[in-house]
Amino acid sequence: MRPEDLVTHEKQLRSLRDVIAGYRTLGIRVEEETRSVPLHSLIATQNAIERRKYDLVLPLVEAGELDVPVLVEEHFTEGGYRRYLLDGHTRVRAHIELGHRSIVAFVIWAPAGTWPSNFVQVAAEYGNVLVKDLPFI
User: Fold this and answer.
1) How far apart are CA 41 and CA 81, in angstroms?
2) 3-133 adopts what CATH topology?
């Protein structure tokens, strides 16, 4: 994997638009905003982080060369907000390891508070593990 194979701002914006378009096709009204979110509260939607990719991403994040917002869904539940990381697991883990507390994200949310989401189902299947606790493979 080469640095140029990693995410760009434009690719992340396309992913954001694709997710929102998918929900709108299903008749689900969602909004988006760009804002800072706490790193340690992000629930993973994948089961591990690839060590080879992490070793490439960590120095780029440390040097400030991979400042692309991550993609997050925010759902309101009885206990408060739950944030599911859709894209950016490796970058989030690098930021955590570097001692950062928050990250800029494209946050998808719904005025209804929560909605049916395949990402939430996937996270539940993996045990609702926080990104900070994901194993490396």
Assistant:
1) 9
2) 3.90.1530
